[in-house]
Amino acid sequence: MRFDQALHSLRLFKSRSQASVAIQDCAALLNGQVVKPSHGVKPGDRITLTGPAGRRTCEVLALPRASLPREAARELVRDVPET
Predict the structure, then answer these.
(1) What's the CATH class of domain 3-80?
(2) Environment class of residue 22 by beta-carbon count within 10 Å: exposed (0-12), middle (13-18) or buried (19+)?
(3) Per-residue pLDDT of the chain (83 residues; tens, 9 = 90+)
């Protein structure tokens, strides 16, 4: 699954276009790296989001196969404590 699509499907962003902008602005990193919105995401990858509310890192446990409600999508990621 594409990085921008995964951010939207996991309900980390409201829209895929917002996710793409965050990726291009380096506010969303994949495994600590700056990547393109089309980069692939797989379970076990770590997503780091930086914004006005601070920094958040989460691990992808699974990717959704279809559109999910917010509560179900949030169960597919696990917050990782900052080190």
Answers:
(1) alpha beta
(2) buried
(3) 999 999 999 999 999 999 999 999 999 999 999 999 999 999 999 999 999 989 999 999 999 988 889 899 989 999 998 76
